[in-house]
TrEMBL record:
Residues 44-478 form the Major facilitator superfamily (MFS) profile domain. It comes from the Eukaryota. Residues 1-10 have a biased composition (Polar residues). InterPro entries: MFS_dom, MFS_sugar_transport-like, MFS_trans_sf. Residues 1-26 are annotated as: Disordered. This is Major facilitator superfamily (MFS) profile domain-containing protein. It is found in: Membrane. Its main location: membrane. It comes from Hibiscus sabdariffa.
Length: 478
């Protein structure tokens, strides 16, 4: 039987075969497309990071809406005998501001127990804990970064709008729980999405934008509260809710999905379209994406909302990293990440312990120590978030970052108890805070430095990279 394959001429057969181009890694491909930092990326990074503004506003709004207003005596003959408002007859005193300025005065809870008056704030943070556990992995598994950010912002905004119509403190607390549930993943999704849209050189700078926006949102609340000081507390909720919905519309039309997440999920055409839309050079627009190498794990066989957590815990090196950064987050981009976080945590802890001594020997210097400790702890945590997103691959990055934020919230649960105990003995508050912050930073010693390094996209790729480096500090056994 004749061979159907065309015969090659002697001249053609003598030619050596052309060498195949080695496959490029996904990180190399993305760096070639978006390694620079153009105006489009600046705009997108700022727009995504604005979610932190609304995150901060929803977190601290209860400071103004749930506060007990000041009051004055209407009958001095009665008030002279009592200083407790609950011991005064009704009609002998009145609020300095209209009753609708606070939920305490509007619903008459000025004499209620601390459990009832503190229920809305507790419900909000309980919602943050539950939302962080339930929603954390959806950004890695099914929804993606952009859709998860939109879902979280919309849930947070709509529940806040419904809060305006609360008839009593019980409905109000339930809606605050839903508000915290939606808010739980806003910051992590915004941070991961904004940093995955830029090259490795700009990850630290872009991450700082989010922290700046959080501070901006926190500082904007007193201004809003002052402007609405004689208006209903419901008005303040509208002021922070309506802009969030407008923000979601802008993000939907102007922000693309993370190309890394799209590649890892097998949606290559969408990822290529996104990369070409973000490309900084003409050569990147005509670049071929056919030889991009992705060490894809078979995750599609068993994907649910907890698949990312299982992946993190099944790999010993990943569990080691996650534990270390979570412990650091519980206790608390210009230089090395690991050394900076370690230095700031130790500095914060030392200054906090020194507050105990300064409070007895040199009280005027105690305030300086408190400020140094506070700002060091804040800086350490901000850098911890950036460090965490560089430690873990794309397939589990959002889940790992959410777990670190959950560790922060869990650590904050003990703060009110220590503060209350510290009113009588500052060794209990400053001393315990200082030792906890300083000691919790020590597990970072065994982790690798990530500044300027390659971001991996799958667990196998990260394991392979660590094996090649021969790092003795990080176990690579599955």
């Amino acid at each position: 039987m004749a061979d159907s394959t065309p015969l090659l001429s002697d001249s053609e057969s003598d030619k050596p075969p052309e060498p195949k181009r080695p496959p490029r890694s996904l990180d190399e491909t993305i760096e070639r497309c978006i390694g620079g930092f153009g105006w489009l990326q600046i705009f997108q990074a700022i727009l995504v990071s604005l979610a932190w503004v609304f995150d901060a506003q929803q977190t601290f709004i209860s400071v103004f809406t749930d506060a007990e207003p000041s009051w004055h005596c209407a009958d001095e003959s009665v008030c002279s005998s009592f200083s407790n408002i609950c011991q005064l007859p009704k009609g002998s005193w009145s609020w300095d501001w209209p009753a609708h300025t606070s939920i305490i005065s509007e619903w008459g809870h000025q004499c209620s127990t601390s459990f009832i008056t503190g229920l809305p704030a507790s419900s909000f943070f309980m919602g943050c804990l539950v939302g962080g556990l339930v929603l954390a992995t959806l950004a890695d598994s099914t929804l993606g970064r952009k859709n998860m950010l939109l879902f979280s912002c919309l849930t947070m905004s709509l529940s806040s709008i419904f809060t305006v119509f609360s008839p009593n403190i019980w409905i109000y607390s339930a809606l605050r729980f839903m508000n915290g549930f939606g808010r739980a993943t806003v910051g992590t999704c915004a941070l991961v999405l904004s940093t995955e849209l830029v090259g490795k050189r700009w990850r630290g700078q872009v991450g700082v934008i989010g922290f700046f926006c959080f501070t901006l949102g926190f500082l904007s609340l007193p201004v809003m509260a002052y402007v609405n000081r004689s208006s209903s507390w419901r008005t303040l909720y509208l002021w922070i809710s309506v802009p969030t919905i407008l923000y979601c519309i802008l993000v939907h039309f102007l922000i693309p999905e993370s190309p890394r997440w799209l590649f890892v999920k097998g949606r290559k055409e969408e990822a290529v379209t996104t990369l070409k839309g973000l490309a900084q050079t003409a050569s990147a627009l005509t670049m071929s994406f056919s030889n991009v190498l992705i060490e894809q794990e078979s995750l599609d066989d068993n994907v649910d909302i907890y698949s990312s957590i299982r992946i993190l815990l099944n790999k010993r090196w990943a569990a080691h990293r996650l534990t270390a950064v979570m412990v650091t987050g519980f206790g608390i981009g210009k230089i090395n990440r690991k050394d900076s976080i370690l230095g700031f945590t130790i500095l914060s802890g030392v200054c906090s312990v020194l507050c105990v001594v300064m409070g007895r020997v040199w009280p005027s210097l105690q305030i300086a120590m408190e400020l140094i400790s506070f700002f060091s702890a804040c800086t350490a945590f901000n850098m911890t978030l950036i460090y965490t997103l560089e430690l873990f691959p794309t397939c589990v990055r959002n889940s790992a970052l959410s777990m670190v934020r959950q560790a922060l919230v869990f650590g904050g649960v003990f703060s009110p108890l220590l503060v209350a105990a510290g009113r009588k003995n500052n060794l209990i508050s400053f001393g315990v805070f200082g030792m906890a912050i300083g000691i919790c930073g020590l597990p970072l010693i065994g982790l690798p430095e990530t500044k300027g390094g390659v971001i991996c996209d799958t667990m196998d790729e990260e394991e392979h990279r660590q094996t090649e480096k021969g790092s003795a500090a990080i176990p690579t056994l599955a």
